[in-house]
Amino acid sequence: MKLCSFVIFCLLLIQTDTAFGAEKVTQELSFLERAETWVAISFFFFLAAFYKPIKKMFLSKLDGRSEAIKTELEEAQRLREEAQHTLAEYERKQRDALKEAETLLNEARAEAERLQKTASEKTEELLKRREQQALDMISAAEAQAINDVRELAAEVAISAASKLLNNAAAEDTGDILIDRAIKDLSSKLN
Fold it and tell me: Using 50, 70 and 90 to split pLDDT, how confident is the model at 31?
């Protein structure tokens, strides 16, 4: 249909061209006797003969191009989906890493608190132990001082008693005291 209308249009174009642009020849030729008519007819036969192969060639080129575009679009769609999948995966990994970091941070804080509590308990225990050691040392020093005072008192008492006894023995009453002590000793031992 399009080919027929194209052929008619070309014939009209050729006819008007000859009517306006050609010089009038004294002898008028009929339409079929003119060379332009036969050139136009052969041109149209040429176009009709090669219309289908040329159309097929153009359509196959266009089909090939459309197929290539379709393939490229499918590849782009596949790459887009793959990129979205990769993006979602990395976003998930990032969320997981943030959660893990937060968990580690919380664990570190708890561990620091526990260590601080343990250190304060150990420090308190150490202070109590040192205080107890100091109290023990003070008690030992007091006991030693008391023993030293007692020993000194005993030495002073012994020294005073010996002086008294020496003074008393010097007066001849020492023999009497020794005799009495010996007698009392037998009664005290029983």
Answer: confident
CA distances from 48 to 3, 25, 28, 42, 130 (A): 8, 32, 30, 10, 119
* DSSP, residue by residue, 28-68: PPPGGGSHHHHHHHHHHHHHHHHHHHHHHHHHHHHHHHHHH
Token pair 């060379």 in the structure block, residue: 35
pLDDT greater than 90 at residue 75: yes
* Angle separating helix axes 2-21 and 35-170, nearest 10 degrees: 130
pTM (global) more than 0.70: no
First to last CA, the chain: 162
